[in-house]
Amino acid sequence: MNAFTLGGATTILDGGLATELEARGHDLSDSLWSARLLADSPEEIVAAHAAFFRAGAEIATTASYQASFEGFAAHGIERNDAAKLMRRSVELARLAGDVEPGRHRWVAASIGPYGAVLADGSEYRGRYGRTKQELRDFHRPRLEVLAESGPDVFALETVPDVDEAEALVEALDGLDVPAWLSYTVDGDRTRAGQPLAEAFAVADSAGIIAVGVNCSAPEDVLPAIEIARATTEKPVVVYPNSGEGWDAQQRTWTGRAHLSPDLARSWRAAGARVIGGCCRVGPEDISAVTEALIDPAG
């Protein structure tokens, strides 16, 4: 297997896996979200990944964002079976790359924040009332299990808080899998209110190969790229939402989508090396971004 690297060219990331699964008719309203389909409909996860690969994505993020031992246990799934489902998330993404052959396909094992398992919008607030050690102890077991399945990279994503970012970086120790660290932001601060310069400085760890933002408004991406490039020499990864807003109480999206290929071009010009989408960004959106950023002749 080739080692995951970020070269000089733009790398296209996928969009919202749950968005595509919902478009395929699946109800993901329970607390396991897309991770439920690891047990119920694994073939649908393969199909969703393959749709993004056909659209031009070079990296698939796995259906493990909301997967944790605690979350599976709440649904009556024992620890050994939960570990198998987590490993399956990587296997399914890898299988989708075989379904859609072509250039080398990468698999990013998604590691969502502690707030994701609470399923109450906490990942958009941070400050859970947990110590850094408690957060490390939460993340480490699933990182270990996912590392066993051989992903190319970890996607430490939608992180709302510097404390949790530091806990995640500590939890990577000794796993020998590179990772990117991606915050969800509001303006020039994390969702918990810390300055982004402080947040991006966490990426100085040797285990972090890129830093950036995701699950944020498209208009917050360009300032974040500029702050990241002023703070660290690590490559920058960006994959915002469509521009619609999430109402956690009503569990619905509001507003209009305004992610565009022109915005993606501006992010590349500002120095972003990995570009994709998050919630409400489907294969058709990734196809438009791919066409805007990738030279068909090259």
Tally of contiguous helical segments: 12
Report the top-level CATH class.
Answer: Alpha Beta
- Largest sheet entry: 8 strands, parallel
Instruction: State the CATH superfamily name.
Output: Homocysteine-binding-like domain
Domain Hcy-binding: 1-293
GO molecular function: S-adenosylmethionine-homocysteine S-methyltransferase activity; zinc ion binding
Binding site for Zn(2+): 215, 278-279
InterPro entries: BHMT-like (IPR017226), HCY_dom (IPR003726), HCY_dom_sf (IPR036589), Hcy_S-methyltransferase (IPR051486)
Notes on the structure:
With 298 residues, the chain is an alpha/beta fold. 40% of the residues lie in helices and 16% in strands. The chain has helices at 17-23, 37-40, 42-54, 69-73, 79-99, 114-118, 132-148, 162-171, 196-200, 221-231, 261-270, 283-293; strands at residues 11-12, 59-61, 106-111, 153-159, 179-183, 185-186, 189-190, 208-214, 236-239, 245-247, 252-254, 272-275. Helix 10 (221-231) links the parallel strand 8 (208-214) and strand 9. It is globular, with a radius of gyration of 17 Å.
